[in-house]
Amino acid sequence: MGTLLAPPPLHPCTSFLNSPETTPKSCAASFLRQGKTKIGYLALCRSLADGNKNNGGVRSMQDGSSIIEGGKKAEGDSKVIDSKDKLATDREEVAEVIGGEGKVLTRVTHSIVFVTAEAAPYSKTGGLGDVCGSLPTALAARGHRVMVVSPRYLHGGPSDKKFAGASEVGSPTKIYCFGGEQEVGFFHEFRAGVDWIVITSPFPAFRYSWTTLHTTVLEIHMEIYLVLLVIIRHDFRFTLLCHAACEAPLVLPLGGFTYGEKCLFVVNDWHAGLVPVLLAAKYRPYGVYKDSRSILVIHNLAHQGVEPAASYNNLGLPLEWYGAVEWVFPTWARTHALDTGKAVNVLKGAIVTADRILTVSQGYAWEITTAEGGYGLDELLSSRKSVLNGITNGVDAAEWNPSLDEHIPSNYSIHDLSGKVECKIALQKELGLPIRPDCPLIGFIGRLDYQKGIDIILSATPELMEEDIQFVMLGSGERQYEDWMRVTEAHYRDKYRGWVGFNVPISHRITAGCDILLMPSRFEPCGLNQLYAMRYGTVPVVHGTGGLRDTVENFNPYARESLGEGTGWTFSPLSRENLLAALKIAIQTYREHKSSWEGLMKRGMERDCTWDKAAIKYEQVFEWAFIDPPYVI
Ligand SMILES: Nc1ncnc2c1ncn2[C@@H]1O[C@H](COP(=O)(O)OP(=O)(O)O[C@H]2O[C@H](CO)[C@@H](O)[C@H](O)[C@H]2O)[C@@H](O)[C@H]1O
């Protein structure tokens, strides 16, 4: 499936991504022609002289644009400028640095600010954390200056140590929302070329996870519990996150320089959706951020940040901007006769005001413009088709690599698969299943909710258990499904294991040890587990929807003169019968057609799905974002 509409022409200064004629060098030259101020050059030179200690080689200019010395290529090149004595002090000298003897590759890049509710390894409850932990690093490695802003969650347990490397930066900033002045603090860690910013607030509702606060407060006093129950709403935490993220590029001296006003905000899901609205309503009317752009990345349209209309006053937006986030539920969705259905919808506001919109696969970019996949926002999204694209997520090759993975008992690769069977045996041992290397082992990893099609697994399991297979599920979520997993395990002691909880090492061991990964998602914007599975030679069986359809190629044993083609099985429409039929074919192929199976495994392992590849596509969208004027009323 192609992108939704023909892309706009390339920006001349970045067309080197596609055109051999325009080189990075000429981009740097064009920067010089634009007559940037001397102070900008001095900043550049000073930064270069710092020996590339910070920001992966990207040096911020006073006007917000950046010049880099070719990302990794420049690293360690001591000939760039090796001491402060050699600070360039005029344009010519800088031009030499930029163009000199082809030693240093430089080009104009962006100052990028990711805004997200979670970013691994600091915080992760699902795929959003993975993406916002990996994509920024990939972009920084390509030479962009990248900051990631997310909340600092504290749980009062060992996981709080993840924030230990972050130290306070700048001074606490006052933000006006929720009927008063709120104070936020910024903590900073420079890691993997990225400025990781976590924000804090004195409010317990901000600092603690729901479960921690719930337990803590219950222990304190029931009355306080009720009061805090009101203020713990997610919209408080994420409203503050968005306001703070808008201030961060202006006030935080990271590596000695602020990011400045010419930023590219990459806002992820509804939690960060207030950012483009704030840019349009609070900043641009006063001449601030008029050169910035925002890109909304939709990881999951099912969650939109809908609150009662009265909560508009909490958002810290001017009164006249109500229309941007105004949302009216259809009549059928109203709760009683007097319910007017009026609400505010943060994601809707972001869709209206973002300069561009991205989803995490091309298939999903189309699905969200349909009544079936649009969750009420399909018409609005259709009206923005000209700025809507899909880019498939990548895989963090450092974390998900069977030949290096520290969580698995035996490493393996496409050239030597022997370790995979050892992983299977170890997993069977760990789970207390009969050790049977030849028995097909099926796995599932994910949130236990409607999206993931757990109800279909549940209805198919009795028939599946009639097969000679083993089945392991790892997940947490809806209580009814967690209970079902426990009961099913008790019932099928020799065949089924249900691991209730969120456990990253186990997820690696299941991915490596299983033969088949099942993903019957009702909808799936991209899906990461099928990508991880393919990298580990575990063959996915998936519902053909969204990113699953885009990434799993259906097995065809007759293609290529019977050598076979494809990396797994996709079935559609989603039903118990189709799921069972696809799984049974997979099981039969595993048992009876060993060479076909090996082909399936190897084709999956060979797929190029690195973040680096996705990052190049993101860069293309960044350029398009800067071609059009920003959203202003
Ligand atoms: N119990 C458990 N223990 C350990 N690890 C667990 C786990 N349950 C889930 N995970 C991990 O969490 C991540 C889940 O990623 P997904 O992309 O499958 O789903 P999610 O629906 O959260 O993300 C949304 O955003 C992502 C990112 O864009 C999209 O791919 C996706 O389609 C969209 O729904 C994977 O890394 C997985 O291994």
UniProtKB/TrEMBL annotation:
It is an enzyme of class 2 (transferase). Its main location: plastid. This is Starch synthase, chloroplastic/amyloplastic. NCBIfam families: glgA (TIGR02095). The keyword Flavoprotein does not apply. It comes from Rhododendron griersonianum. Keywords: Amyloplast, Chloroplast, Glycosyltransferase, Plastid, Starch biosynthesis, Transferase, Transit peptide. GO terms for molecular function: alpha-1,4-glucan glucosyltransferase (ADP-glucose donor) activity; alpha-1,4-glucan glucosyltransferase (UDP-glucose donor) activity. Residues 436-587 form the Glycosyl transferase family domain. Pathway: Glycan biosynthesis; starch biosynthesis. It is found in: Plastid, Chloroplast; Plastid, Amyloplast. Belongs to the glycosyltransferase 1 family. Bacterial/plant glycogen synthase subfamily. The lineage of its organism: Eukaryota, Viridiplantae, Streptophyta, Embryophyta, Tracheophyta. Residues 112-382 form the Starch synthase catalytic domain.
